[in-house]
Design a protein that fits this description.
Radius of gyration: 19 Å
Strand content: 15-25%
Low-confidence stretches: 1-14, 140-146
Structural class: alpha/beta
Shape: globular
Mean pLDDT: 81
Strand order of the largest sheet: 2-1-3-4-5
Helix content: 40-55%
Largest sheet: 5 strands, parallel
């Protein structure tokens, strides 16, 4: 196990000296990532065992996770799902697996991003900083006013809770902020590229499946008792929008 390395360059802005947990069974990959991230003045913890990583994650509370799918004792997918039970820190898979199936599976397990090996260290660091920047912005939202719609659709930005028809909906951080972005402007169409840039905080690089997966999960969670009314509508060839009919129906209740 490589312990956290606390390095701080005077005057360097280092994203709150963010703690990064890297879990990979390949020693060469761990050493490479440790060297790369240490140069960026991150505090880095490298592990090769999934169960040990889960224990350390609960104790150390990292700000960011980099996971490989193929790790010992507890694979990366199971580890990601377990981390999501107690942490909303960004999770990025960095894996030798490049199939669409593995990418979608990782995103559905709770990951925020996916890169394949071999990879560009510059791109990896840029993505990490964008996720950390977005995560920090969302974390500083406490104290803002609630967002109410017709009394029965309520979003609490401070607690990131959503209530629909007196039913509390459990959403991930990304799901909440996608819904919040759409709900602020009912009827406005957001392209997948726009949503990615607004919610993930970095320019879209072409792979929009992570947006599609999060929207799909949101729709499953946001089922209402109203027949034929979806809260999030797909506008073919354009993107997604918050359904104004939902508000009109709720206002009549």
């Amino acid at each position: 196990m490589v312990k956290f390395q606390y390095i701080l360059k005077v005057g360097e802005r280092v994203f709150r000296r963010a703690k990064i947990m890297v879990v990979d069974s390949n020693e060469y990959s761990l050493n490479q990532l440790y060297d790369c991230l240490s140069k960026e003045f991150f505090n880095v913890l490298c592990l090769s065992d999934g169960n040990k990583a889960l224990i350390e994650a609960k104790k150390e509370e990292p700000d960011f996770f980099i996971l490989e799918i193929d790790i010992s004792s507890l694979d990366g997918i199971d580890l990601c799902q377990n981390i999501r039970k107690f942490s909303e820190s960004p999770i990025l898979f960095l894996s030798t697996r490049s199939s669409n199936f593995d990418k979608v599976l990782a995103l559905r397990s709770g990951a925020d991003d996916y890169m394949t090996k071999p990879y560009s260290q510059m791109e990896l660091v840029a993505r990490m900083k964008a996720h950390l920047r977005r995560s920090r912005i969302h974390g500083s939202s406490a104290g803002k006013s609630h967002l109410f719609y017709a009394g029965v659709f309520k979003m609490n930005l401070a607690t990131q809770k959503v209530v629909i028809e007196d039913r509390e909906i459990d959403l991930s951080v990304r799901e909440f902020h996608i819904l919040y972005q759409l709900a602020q402007h009912p009827g406005r169409i957001y392209s997948m590229e726009e949503l990615y840039e607004l919610v993930w905080g970095n320019p879209c690089v072409g792979d929009l499946r992570t947006v599609m997966v999060h929207i799909s999960n949101l729709r499953k969670k946001l089922k209402t008792n109203v027949d034929d009314i979806e809260i999030i509508e797909t506008v073919r060839g354009a993107g997604y929008r918050f359904n104004e009919k939902v508000l009109k129906h709720f206002s009549k209740i």
